[in-house]
Amino acid sequence: MRDEGERVLESIDVNDAYSLSDLVVIRHSASLLDSQARTSALTRLFADRASHDGPRLGGALGAEKTWQAIHALSEAEGTDAIALEVLLEEVAKNHEGEQADEYTYARLLGLWRVAAWEDSKVRSRVAELSTQIDTSKSVELKRAIELAADRLAAPAIGKEEDLNLQAVARYVDRAMLHSEEIPDDVVPRIESLLRAQLAATRKDAHEGRFSGGGLKEAELAVALMFVTSSADLWSEVLNFVLDPAVQRDDKTAALTRMASRASDLPEVITETLRQRSSDLLDGGPEFMGSAIRPYPAGVRLLAMIGGLGVGAPLSLVAELMAKGTPSSRHEAGVTLVALAHRGERSEWFESTCLWLTYEADAYVRSLAGQALAITDASWNRTGRDERLAALLQEDGTLVPLRVLAGLEDASEALPQTLRDIAMSLVASHMSTEVRQAARAVLGRPNAYENLLKREPTGRGARRTAREVIRRATRTIRGWLR
């Protein structure tokens, strides 16, 4: 993929033109390219978006593919806030012109991570745009800008009808990410809304009406109770997730969040879940796809709260694997990782993880490798370390990243053989993500930058790249004006 990305960039330089497929290649190879190549590509794409004279791809599709490539390149380079600022300037200039496509711009704005929106210049541009865009002409774009504004400040709840699930989600997100307390006078109103939504969804389910997508009220209720002690919706949530008529799509996110914070669940809740284990394992209907039994989210929650007998979690994992479908095997892998985090260390568990690292499916292999990396494999240390070493050196990024994540979560010291491989990954792996993950495992960020044989070669190169893009941005702003 890196070679293909470099080939495309060379072709653009020679032919002074590129296609939609070229932009797709650039987007997917962005993290594999070196800093100089990313910076050069960003400068070129920025200029072509700002100029009508270059080989710029017109129309909504051309804009979307170009900005997707810019997003990937800038995120890999650490300059995504600058790219977002330029996108917002394009939105300000074009949102009412012939080239405007509110749906395209709305989708593009959703690509950027929260940290980029926190940039001071981005904040300023969002504040300006939120008052400039005419709602009657650009409804979707207006919503996207308002959502961005809401990310930067807690939503202002005025009239009763202003409170909705989106507002609740933003309150909860900011409480979790920024430790901002939800106002005492707002919590009861949120509880009332969620209680009504839970009851409405259950009523619809019993009458055979289901829907997919959107925010899940059960997950929001669980998250709310984890961020504020004044909320109490456990009774409603419990009745919801144990209701056999409610579809799994409405339950899974809530059960997953409960499993991740199992030690924080009230004892009366965990005891009820243990007593109703059969209902959790059944899971209810699945409107959006095939219903895997046992219900994977139920298996994981019960395993985390000790609601299954000795050996039962692994028997259920074996049952999921025996189903033979890709989705069931993927769920088995996810369950192994959850069990490893819980502290499962039996010989049977470790041998199962080792066995599944030889799966043909790379996703299952990566999950099994992650679970194996978390364990200490006291019964077969040599075999475990040799297998992890091989997984770390697999082609691609999926398997190495998962194994590195497991090693980072492991409680024991990193064996020397794996430390040597991690240092090698920092020095030579083509993926920025893998190099960063390997540094995290070694526990010394930036300590091994001098091992890199190609650009970037440390913070100085990163600063240089940022300065190049900032200069290009100033030039582009001149064109936009």
**Relative strand content:** under 5%
The total beta strand count reads 0
Give the helix proportion (percent range): 55-70%
- Summed up, the domain count is 3
Task: Name the structural class.
Answer: mainly alpha
Largest sheet: none
Overall morphology:
globular
Q: Low-confidence spans: pLDDT under 50, at least 5 residues? A: 444-464, 475-481
From the N-terminal CA to the C-terminal CA, the straight-line distance is 37 Å
H-E order: HHHHHHHHHHHHHHHHHHHHHHHHHH
What is the count of helical runs?
Answer: 26
Mean pLDDT: 81
Could you explain how this protein is built, in words?
The protein is mainly α and 481 residues long. Helices cover 67% and strands 0% of the residues. The protein is built from 26 helices and no strands. It has helices spanning 2-15, 20-29, 35-50, 59-77, 80-94, 102-109, 114-117, 120-132, 139-152, 165-178, 187-206, 217-227, 234-241, 252-260, 267-275, 277-282, 296-304, 312-322, 326-342, 347-356, 362-374, 381-392, 398-409, 416-428, 432-442, 459-480. The radius of gyration is 25 Å and the shape is globular.
